[in-house]
Amino acid sequence: MANVPRFKLNTGALMPAVGLGGWGGSTKEEREQAWTFMLTALKAGYRLIDTAWIYGTEKATAVAIKKSGIPREDIWITTKLHHQHGPFAEKFLQESLDNLETDYVDLYLMHWPQTSKWVEGVSEPTDEHGDIITTDEWTFNQTWAKMEKLYESGKAKAIGVSNFSIKNLEKLFETAKVVPAVNQVEMHPYLAQQDLKDYCDQKGIVLTAYTPTGYKTVLSDPTIAELAEKYKASPAQVVLSWHVARGVAVVPKSSNEQRQKENLTLLNLDPEDVKRVTALDRNQRLCNYANERGKVWGWTYEQLGW
């Protein structure tokens, strides 16, 4: 089994540095079948599954864990509170726990800082342009206070945030009693976010990267290709190893068994090579970026602090 390092959170818990991204696709069928690639990952040695209420793969996660035969306490489950559910955090954590067939999650993240409007039966209400309708009547500070109670209850062994900038973390700290254990953000060599990394290090927050390999855009970069050749490894292995060398956890999504195994096998990059990869930074978002109206899930870059 791959020897995956673990990062110590401010709770004292040891979180695997490499996990499996649990996005299953857009259709109900794809989401229901996500257990198949989750199961191959667990068999390959993964011990962290990163899912979310909005992914619709929490039930599939439960199926995969059950079929794997691996004890629940040996698997780290991360799930996320949807941006519409802040005022009802307790109710929706319970829904996630029921979906996951467990009585606790190892990490519960606030998926986005913005709050979208509550519309019964509509999880992502949009305006006439197709932008998420957000509301100022509920703030992420209020959501965090709810999450702190869930942490106290033991139903979430650790709590954190996702898509938070320095600006919004500063706002959060105006009222927070508990420092987030993790901040999960888009991060890859073209979006190295060194300032955010330094800030989170200073605050004792572990960063987790989603879209960690930066798709083919980053994987086809000449520097990455050159390093893959040098280390006799795949471009993805180079990039994932770069993250972990920086102290950043990763949750790559792959349904291919061979790639899952590769992603779990980290390289020992020379410090100079780590610097070379970091130098590729161009502040380029490849997953969540502004549409033609300058919005990302209903908020502007200014609101997001990006």
UniProtKB/TrEMBL annotation:
<feature type="binding site">
    <location>
        <position position="111"/>
    </location>
    <ligand>
        <name>substrate</name>
    </ligand>
</feature>
<comment type="similarity">
    <text>Belongs to the aldo/keto reductase family.</text>
</comment>
<dbReference type="InterPro" id="IPR036812">
    <property type="entry name" value="NAD(P)_OxRdtase_dom_sf"/>
</dbReference>
<dbReference type="InterPro" id="IPR020471">
    <property type="entry name" value="AKR"/>
</dbReference>
<dbReference type="InterPro" id="IPR018170">
    <property type="entry name" value="Aldo/ket_reductase_CS"/>
</dbReference>
<feature type="domain" description="NADP-dependent oxidoreductase">
    <location>
        <begin position="18"/>
        <end position="281"/>
    </location>
</feature>
<feature type="active site" description="Proton donor">
    <location>
        <position position="55"/>
    </location>
</feature>
<dbReference type="InterPro" id="IPR023210">
    <property type="entry name" value="NADP_OxRdtase_dom"/>
</dbReference>
<dbReference type="GO" id="GO:0016616">
    <property type="term" value="F:oxidoreductase activity, acting on the CH-OH group of donors, NAD or NADP as acceptor"/>
</dbReference>
<keyword id="KW-0560">Oxidoreductase</keyword>
<dbReference type="Pfam" id="PF00248">
    <property type="entry name" value="Aldo_ket_red"/>
</dbReference>
<feature type="site" description="Lowers pKa of active site Tyr">
    <location>
        <position position="80"/>
    </location>
</feature>
<protein>
    <submittedName>
        <fullName>Aldo/keto reductase</fullName>
    </submittedName>
</protein>
<keyword id="KW-0521">NADP</keyword>
